[in-house]
Amino acid sequence: MDNIIKIENLIFEYKRDEDQEVIRAVDQVSLSIERGSFVAIIGRNGSGKSTLAKNINALLLPSSGEVNVDGFNTRDESALWKIRQTAGMVFQNPDNQLVSSIVEDDVAFGPENLAVEPKEIRIRVDESLKAVGMYEERMKAPHLLSGGQKQRIAIAGVVAMKPKCIILDEPTAMLDPKGREEVMTIIRKLHKEGITILLITHFMDEASRADRVIIMDKGQIVMDGMPKQIFARADEIRNLSLDVPLPVELAERLRKEGFEVPLEIITAEEMVDFICQYK
Question: What is the pLDDT of residue 38?
Answer without folding.
Answer: 97
